[in-house]
Design brief:
Multidrug-efflux Transporter Regulator, Chain: A, Domain 2; 2 domains; three-stranded antiparallel beta sheet; 3 strands; elongated
Length: 160
């Protein structure tokens, strides 16, 4: 905009907001606003996910590349919308990679299932309907699958 145009726009009370290019770097406050996530949460995610690595300038000021913003959008979607935990998301990074997380953030990939084989060990068995012929030992029989799962966990812990 020419100086004369800026002066006339200011005189008319018209305020022009310039949009950044899609390839421009973003500050943490801009990313925070875009993702509707507090800045302290973005800094926390940097500490938990080494894949998030914004450019840092003097004084520690962060500048996020478009790829960083896309990755943060995927992290936010998996944590907030799909209910993954930090550890669950770290596992997704290990198993499926950064491209998958970015794709989820863009809406191109379905979210991973919430339950894995390892979490099945901690799920209680489905309650069974008691039979009319059940004896006093029925409650003990009902605990057998739970005891077996606990023993399996104990063995896994000893092996680790």
């Amino acid at each position: 905009m020419k100086p004369a145009d800026a002066a006339s726009a200011a005189e008319d009370g018209i305020e022009q907001v310039r949009e950044k290019s899609a390839q421009a770097f973003r500050t943490i406050s801009e990313v925070s606003e875009e993702l509707d996530t507090p800045a302290h949460v973005l800094r926390f995610w940097e500490s938990k996910f080494h894949q998030v690595n914004p450019l840092k300038r003097g004084g520690g000021r962060r500048y996020y590349r478009p790829a960083d913003v896309a990755l943060l959008r995927g992290i936010r979607a998996l944590l907030y919308d799909d209910g993954l935990t930090i550890k669950g998301l770290q596992k997704v990074f290990r198993e499926r990679g950064v491209k998958y997380v970015v794709a989820v953030g863009a809406g191109a990939e379905p979210a991973p299932p919430r339950q894995t084989a390892q979490t099945d060990l901690f799920d209680p068995p489905a309650p069974e309907e008691p039979d009319a012929d059940s004896t006093a030992s029925a409650p003990v029989d009902h605990l057998a699958p739970v005891i077996a799962r606990l023993e399996a966990l104990r063995d896994r812990l000893r092996a680790a």
